[in-house]
Amino acid sequence: MIEPAQRIAAPTFAGEALRGAILATVIYADLFDDALTRDELHRYLIGEEASAAVVAAMLDRDAELRFHVEQTEGRFHLNGRPQLAAIRRERAAASADLWPAAKRYGARIARLPFVRLVGVTGALAMNNARPDDDIDLFILAQPGRLWLCRLLVLAIVKLAALRGYVLCPNFLLSTDHLQLSERNLFTAHEVVQMIPLERDHWYRVFIEANGWVADFLPNAFAGQTVEARPGSGRPIPGRLVAGLLSARVFDPLERWEMRRKVRRLSRRLEREGGCVAFSENECRGHFSAHDARILAVYRQRLAEYVDGIR
Q1: What residue ranges in 95-226 does DSSP mark as E strands?
Q2: What is the Cα–Cα distance from 167 to 273, expressed in whole angstroms?
Q3: What is the mean pLDDT of residues 152-176?
Q4: Kind of pairing, strands 135-141 and 167-174?
Q5: Using CA atoms, how far apart are residues 107 and 109, in angstroms rounded to an integer?
Q6: Whole-angstrom distance, CA of residue 78 vs CA of residue 26
Q7: What is the greatest pairwise CA distance in the chain?
């Protein structure tokens, strides 16, 4: 972790808030060894709504900001971190190698009974993945069948593992509980960065249900309409299986599978810790508290660089 050369000085003009927001955004990206393009920096600008032109003008003309933020190969990073440009090139190449598998297995999951949406999250969604990274997946499931849905998804996970790919469906959510309860900068980034395999009706509904992300990333969807395109449709056998297993007679099987998995996941939580939620509407298994650690380090870095920014 690099040490800041000095803190940002006391406010000198009306753009102080924007300067601080740009620096905060670059600091957050640095935690993932990421360096941002102009467009990315504008889209992921933390806490300040501003046009792309205004952000670009400050990047180009503000001497105090340039004391802390440098540009290498078209990407902005903290002073003293030019190596991030090379890291991003390497990870972009690694991500390009992972995307075909993510799309292939994600499409198979999307055709399973009870699945309503599959999205790629994590490092791959930002094209910042290493060759051995997991492929993180977010899945929307039919109400009342989330845990049977997860059971079917795990069959695809095992199939992918046989071919050397690690799928990590670490967040399943029921379509009747789309508003996320965990609201922080990390989760806001996960929502905004998610790449849906199909921008169908459910993707638009999910984004609209989580409009709170604008409190953290106000430019993320500013001026954009999340368009829904017709999906490819689920094969007839999948629809038939889903219709059969949706019958109330299978409700006890859903509850049994939930209890069985929650016991197993709870034992893992005792070993590893983390930020998790298990219910009939949600299975969020972010073990090892990665998100909490990121936010804690981010707050520490802000305290080192910027007075008064939260």
Answers
A1: 115-121, 135-141, 167-174, 195-196
A2: 21
A3: 95
A4: parallel
A5: 5
A6: 7
A7: 68
Please give the model's pTM, rounded to 2 decimal places: 0.86
Q: In Å, how far from its chain's centre is CA 262?
A: 24
Position of tokens 């009706």?
201
Report, in angstroms and rounded to the nearest whole number, the Rg of the chain calculated over CA atoms: 21
Sequence-separated contacts (24+) of 303-307 with Cβ below 8 Å: 304/3, 304/4, 304/7, 305/4, 305/7, 305/8, 305/23, 305/27, 305/68, 306/7, 306/8, 306/20, 306/23, 306/24, 307/7, 307/8
- Within 163-250, where are the H helices? 185-193, 201-209, 236-245
Q: Under DSSP, is residue 11 helix (H, G, I), strand (E, B) or coil?
A: coil
The residue type of 280 is E
- Tens digit of pLDDT for each residue in 196-221? 998 678 999 999 999 999 999 999 98
Residue written as token pair 């440098």: 70
pLDDT tens digits, one per residue of 5-43: 334 444 444 488 999 999 999 999 999 999 999 999 999
User: How far from 243 is each of 106, 108, 140, 248, CA to CA, in Å?
Assistant: 22, 18, 17, 11
Digit-coded pLDDT (tens) for 262-304: 888 888 877 776 677 889 999 887 767 788 889 999 999 998 8
